[in-house]
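Reviewers of the previous submission asked for a worked example of the structure-prediction workflow described in the proposal, so we include one complete record here. The input consisted solely of the amino acid sequence. No template or homolog information was supplied to the procedure at any stage.
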Amino acid sequence: MVIPLTVISAYGLITILSWFRGLRKIRSWGYLALSLLIIWGFARYEHMYWVHMAKEFPFSSQYGVKELVDYIKEKENQKIIVTDRYDQPYILFLFYLKYPPQRFQEEHSLSAKDKYGFSTVRSFGNYEFVPIDFDSLKPQNLGSLIVGTDEEIPNEANIVKRIYGENGYLYFEAVAN
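From that input alone, the workflow returned the following structure tokens.
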């Protein structure tokens, strides 16, 4: 969808610029107005990206994963089950853990392919990435650490750590099982 919009935008820009060339009296004002419109559009985009996105869609930027990885690094021998609600957190886990690529290639497991032909990493090492259904996971994974969102973890669970973002949003809750 990006390519057709880019082509249409480029065609529109070329058409407007060629139209300005024919109007000698307002050419300078036309270029100025067009430049201001482009600058305003870019400034609005930057404002929406840096100010509003973090507040309205905090989960989309994967905030909190670094703090979560810092917390669970200490638990190397424990099975850790992490929610995949925020897309594919295994990528950031590999990055923040500085996990050896050779070791990852040898021990990771993939999910079944979806209807589009894609699969994702479900586990590597002692980390497992699944949708959290706390009531079914708890009895099957005694002694493990279950990490989920506020919606996935019940309030009566043994929550040992809450991961908040700089904006005060609760990203993760870790439960000692």
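The CA atoms of residues 47 and 163 lie 26 Å apart. We consider this example representative of the routine output the project will generate in years two and three.
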